[in-house]
Specification:
- By secondary structure, the chain is α/β, with parallel strands linked by helices.
- It folds into 2 domains: 119 residues, Aspartate Aminotransferase, domain 1; 237 residues, Type I PLP-dependent aspartate aminotransferase-like (Major domain) (Aspartate Aminotransferase, domain 2), CATH 3.40.640.
- It has 15 helices and 13 strands.
- Helix 5 links the parallel strand 3 and strand 4.
- The longest helix has 15 residues.
- The model has no long low-confidence stretch (mean pLDDT 96).
Length: 385
Amino acid sequence: MNKFNGNIVSKLPQTGTSVFAVMSGMANEHKAVNLSQGFPDFPISEELIDSVYYYMQKGFNQYAPMPGVPELRQAISKMFIQNHDAKYNPETEITITAGATQGLYTAISAFVKPGDEVIVFEPAYDSYAPAVEVNKGITKYSKLLYPDFGINWDELPKLISHNTRMIIINTPHNPTGSVLKEDDLKRLEKLTKGTDIIVLSDEVYEHLIFEGKQHQSVCRYPDLASHSIVVGSFGKTFHATGWKIGFVLMPENLMKEFRKVHQFVVFAVNTPIQYAMADYLAVPENYLSLGKFYQKKRDYFVKAVGKSKFKIIPSFGTYFQLLDYSTISDENEMDFATRLIKENGIAGIPVSPFYKNKDNNKVLRFCFAKQEETLKKAAEILCRI
């Protein structure tokens, strides 16, 4: 095809290919054990697959309603009442999205105007800042305190100005596996009370939380919930990342604006999967059991790498484990991660790309949402380094 010869002004001039794609591509090229990108290598529920097929066979293959099928929105509403005693009207306060990333992008697009400031905690999932930038907002960064990755409450209030439109939080946190505590949410509630600040809460790993901890959703704090958006993911929850189905919850006045944008970004989401998800959520054990399921995998991986030279940074949620290699090498994270793939046949993700200035803490992220055989092989390699 002939090349376009017109002038192109990039909206994301500093943005290249995602680090996930880069490291996974390199892992495939060198046939490395891939613990980089966050996707499971084990099968999803046969019951869920059968249910999707059932609804396809029954003819549920045309457009769903723009907000999502009523049955799924009702099931989500019931789930949040049971888990958090938080009431969201399924008609006006819940919308189904084509994955959590679409929900996050649409929320930012709906509320962030040129010149608005958005506070992001870093290391930050890599979709937040580009979405702000595309909408001509200004990203302000607050660094989580290393190595526990807690919020710096001395710094955060100083970042807030009359231009602050949104604060994005993420718990359980990708890439670190840290979780926010009750005190964090109460302080955030107090800090934003009486302001026009919207809190965008990325809670896609809500059910992947360990040590018997209670997930601290913004919806558990009524005043905070009144100006907050909750983003969830069925793909993350039920090991089906390729299905790209998520949801958002927010007060009705916010949802009206969200849906104005949502209808032109994606309009509607995969119909038979929505019906199948509604049925699957009717059995709470299908998601309430996941914390123990993934904690068992985390514990297996941590024990298996325990005799290595890597230092383990505790993970309390998600399916990611950070390993500190400071006693092994002085290389920066990208160089060390690249060498591990090429020379040792093991792929992790450097954490530095999750920072604006590529901070180098000599830490890599490894995904333990894998079969035991995969984790065993990965740990054997890491213990030889």
